[in-house]
Amino acid sequence: RNLLDMDTFSKSDPVVVLFVQGSGGSEWKEFGRTEVIDNTLNPDFVRKFVLDYYFEEKQNLRFDPPGSHGAVLGAQDFLGQAFVALGEVIGSQRGRLERALTGVPGKRCGTILLLAEELSNCRDIVTMQLCANKLDKKDFFGKSDPFLVFYRSNEDGTFTICHKTEVVKNTLNPVWQPFTIPVRALCNGDYDRTVKIDVYDWDRDGSHDFIGEFATSYRELSRAQSQFTVYEVLNPRKKCKKKKYVNSGTVTLLSFSVESEFTFVDYIRGGTQLNFTVAIDFTASNGMPSQPTSLHYASPYQLSAYALALKAVGEIIQDYDSDKLFPAYGFGAKVPPDGKISHQFPLNNNADNPSCAGIEGVLESYLQSLRTVQLYGPTNFAPVINQVAGAAAQVTDGSQYHVLLIITDGVISDMLQTKEAIVSASALPMSIIIVGVGPAEFEAMEELDGDEVRVSSRGRYAERDIVQFVPFRDYVDDSGNQVLSMARLAKDVLAEIPEQLLSYMKTRDIKPRRADP
């Protein structure tokens, strides 16, 4: 909108070139360009850019709209540029972001309007149930043991198996269990594509006897939502041989229902906000912050491990939080004025409003706290987990989801209370990320992670796996490239958040709100 006018006798002829930056790298590569629109300062481009989206990565994009006087980018008039992360566009209201173009000194370059939508890759899931009647008898001593095999047709006329029912023993009138299959697997999203169904009699040696077949389509199957559909099972060889052959039985579609499988992006576009809270370990085992051996030590040339972990995770999550205000706490320190030990003191020293403005605000408050509190102990997680759980319990309708980042150096002191807190929190809209810094052994953290065995406390098991633990040392780049270390760390600790959010929504049957058109 309102681009600079660089042509003398007419308006500019804009085109937009999209550049992408590799994760953790600094090099920009051209990804593609829009069509050229002649003689306008307010172009609406038609050509779309299709990008793979990863919540856990900072996907930096650069948009350059040069006037199109030459085929080579450098030969064109420079109309400004805009930098944005893909997550910012997706996290913005209705996936719509307006960003000012900059780069031409002393001039207003106009704005660029970006719209992001998820490609609908046919996410519907079908549940159906079938039964059969008067199938051919294939076994010498008993009746048949029938089962069904579903095939979807391919573009080249071949068929690919996509589902097998269970075997129902010794009957010519089987009723199969209801089963679920993605529409994509059944017909590749083409509702009129042929779906072939074979009926077999199961044999122990694997040489199953063919009873017959019938063909249908997704569209035809879906009509069973309002009526039973009966298919004749035909055996082509029998049909050729016997003049009086009618069929080899019938198969009836008893029920057919369709559900949409929602994605993380559906919820974000529907207005779900990610609320990010930080908790930092201020126990004495970290070492004196003024000493280079301390895990809290920040040299003039490089951030501490704590600051790096905070930036790596926070800079991605902040794109999904509209107010960019992040509550930040410390634990395990003696705090002024009375020197009492606290396990959830606000880093900004404001108990009424512990929120900091942006990730930079959190970093500032963290560095300020290092100068005012006394590092002490023990390492207790439960108080800060319960604090965030209390906030998460206030709004459980799916519009808010909380992510707590705990950065710690050591062995946890309140393991039983922490397990209890995690089990309770697993029923709430929240996830917990734990980043372990320093050389300590972190076996207890692996137990909290719950990937192998679900966390339990006093006989109660966590409803969902909500904890992700990683040791920071696994991500330190050998060459000292901090940007790369941060990108690797963020990728691993954030990878489970979308699935954890979806698992909460699913267990509570919360559907995404419809984004306004």
Provide structural commentary.
By secondary structure, the protein is α+β, with helices and mostly antiparallel strands. It folds into 3 domains: 17-115, no CATH class; 124-260, C2 domain (Immunoglobulin-like, Sandwich); 272-494, von Willebrand factor, type A domain (Rossmann fold). The protein has 12 helices and 26 strands. The protein has helices at residues 86-91, 183-187, 218-222, 236-241, 264-269, 305-317, 358-372, 382-394, 415-425, 443-449, 482-494, 497-507; strands at residues 17-21, 28-33, 60-64, 82-85, 96-100, 111-115, 124-133, 146-153, 159-164, 179-182, 194-201, 209-217, 229-232, 250-260, 273-281, 325-331, 333-335, 340-342, 345-346, 355-357, 374-375, 400-408, 430-436, 456-457, 460-461, 467-471. Strands 15, 16, 19, 20, 22, 23 and 26 form a 7-stranded mixed beta sheet that branches. Strand 11 (194-201) and strand 12 form a beta hairpin. Helix 6 packs across helix 11. It is flat. The two termini are 20 Å apart. InterPro entries: C2_dom, C2_domain_sf, C2B_Copine, Copine, Copine_C, VWF_A, vWFA_dom_sf.
